[in-house]
Amino acid sequence: MEAHFTEWLNLGIRWIHMITGIAWIGASFYFVWLENNLNRSNPREGLSGDLWAIHGGGIYHLEKYKLAPPKMPENLHWFKWEAYATWLSGVALLLVVYYLNPSLYLVKPGVELSPAMGIAIGLGSMAISYVIYHFLCDSPLGKRPALLGAVLFVLIIAAAYGFSQIFSGRAAYIHVGAIIGTIMVGNVFFTIMPAQRALVKAIEENRTPDPVLPAKGLLRSRHNNYFTLPVLFIMISNHFPSTYGSQYNWAILAGIAILAVLVRHYFNTRHDSSKYVWTLPAAALGMICLAYVTSPAHRAPAAAPVAAVEQPARTTPAKVEQASPAAAPVEQAASTDGAPAANAGASDFAQVESVIHERCTVCHSANPTSPMFSAAPAGLMLDTPEQMKAQAAKIHAQTVATQIMPLGNITQMTQEERDLIGSWIAEGAQIN
């Protein structure tokens, strides 16, 4: 019952996070598009531009004032709760998925880091990152947008590299996303909203608004716009182990972030000229290159998790029953002439089946024995030889190539067992 409740809690929070995120991102994209497409030729007095648009069977006329209208309207719509709700639901999701089971989902296997310290690093990095970002934006560097962007990029990727050394691949990515999301919501709460409130107050008090604050709010809003696509990728990245599961996951994230920013820049500037149209084919080519260099044939094998070889599995409240000695299935596969166990077992499916049953089907089963799951994660079941053969590619990707499974290596799969499975798959994944 506990696993079932946790699954639905995860689903509910994730659903809220997605809904509010779409609302926030949609508003961000729309207002940047609106700003870029205003007709600024001969606007009437007091306006900086206007726009005519048609949508949903209606024609709209939108006007932007240089600062504000002479008199404030009775109903003025504010855009803030989308940002706050997205961040709050994101933090709640971080808590439910990673911080309730830090030994399993957060801390990288083999790293001597207590769960409490891992959580402290995760939460602390979010606050510290915003403080650094805010300081840089208000420094002289803030007057040089391109250089500021480059510095921020280097710092974020440095954080990604640091996270990858102590956190699991998925946790490292999601904490980079949490940093960026915190910066974005911080921009709304500490800069954009105060600037808007100051503008409204000045109009109500019949005095000239300070143009500096709205300009600063617009700059931070543009920052948020460029952050959006990298954050969206991070939100879906847990479905793609060839990215976060690579030993160079931080570099892959850097590459995808650059491509995402290039694409966003094209859409932000295409109203003015087509000089950045090259970014679209360049981004497509970049994704193809990333797919190529991260393929198993061109990727260096990941280092064996220390926890799988030298240390017992970490204890966790949701831990499955202790697996039997890790090397047993492979030792049984050794031939009489002393050949290496992995090679001997490559053609002996019985040994592979034993490893998969012992290390994988505690979760990936029609009836999981692990208390963490009430149903097989992602619907992937490995109860029968036929299911194992059908899922051979996924088994290879997650247990051999990237070694992200079992989660936290909770069932103590050894490197020899991974090699055994890899050899079996390389020989055609025969089950007869």
UniProtKB/TrEMBL annotation:
<dbReference type="GO" id="GO:0020037">
    <property type="term" value="F:heme binding"/>
</dbReference>
<dbReference type="InterPro" id="IPR036909">
    <property type="entry name" value="Cyt_c-like_dom_sf"/>
</dbReference>
<feature type="transmembrane region" description="Helical">
    <location>
        <begin position="172"/>
        <end position="192"/>
    </location>
</feature>
<dbReference type="GO" id="GO:0009055">
    <property type="term" value="F:electron transfer activity"/>
</dbReference>
<feature type="transmembrane region" description="Helical">
    <location>
        <begin position="276"/>
        <end position="293"/>
    </location>
</feature>
<keyword id="KW-1133">Transmembrane helix</keyword>
<dbReference type="Pfam" id="PF06181">
    <property type="entry name" value="Urate_ox_N"/>
</dbReference>
<dbReference type="InterPro" id="IPR010389">
    <property type="entry name" value="Urate_ox_N"/>
</dbReference>
<dbReference type="GO" id="GO:0046872">
    <property type="term" value="F:metal ion binding"/>
</dbReference>
<keyword id="KW-0472">Membrane</keyword>
<feature type="compositionally biased region" description="Low complexity">
    <location>
        <begin position="315"/>
        <end position="335"/>
    </location>
</feature>
<keyword id="KW-0479">Metal-binding</keyword>
<feature type="domain" description="Cytochrome c">
    <location>
        <begin position="340"/>
        <end position="429"/>
    </location>
</feature>
<keyword id="KW-0408">Iron</keyword>
<feature type="transmembrane region" description="Helical">
    <location>
        <begin position="248"/>
        <end position="267"/>
    </location>
</feature>
<feature type="transmembrane region" description="Helical">
    <location>
        <begin position="113"/>
        <end position="133"/>
    </location>
</feature>
<keyword id="KW-0349">Heme</keyword>
<feature type="transmembrane region" description="Helical">
    <location>
        <begin position="15"/>
        <end position="34"/>
    </location>
</feature>
<keyword id="KW-0812">Transmembrane</keyword>
<feature type="transmembrane region" description="Helical">
    <location>
        <begin position="145"/>
        <end position="166"/>
    </location>
</feature>
<protein>
    <submittedName>
        <fullName>Uncharacterized membrane protein</fullName>
    </submittedName>
</protein>
<feature type="transmembrane region" description="Helical">
    <location>
        <begin position="81"/>
        <end position="101"/>
    </location>
</feature>
<feature type="region of interest" description="Disordered">
    <location>
        <begin position="315"/>
        <end position="343"/>
    </location>
</feature>
<dbReference type="InterPro" id="IPR009056">
    <property type="entry name" value="Cyt_c-like_dom"/>
</dbReference>
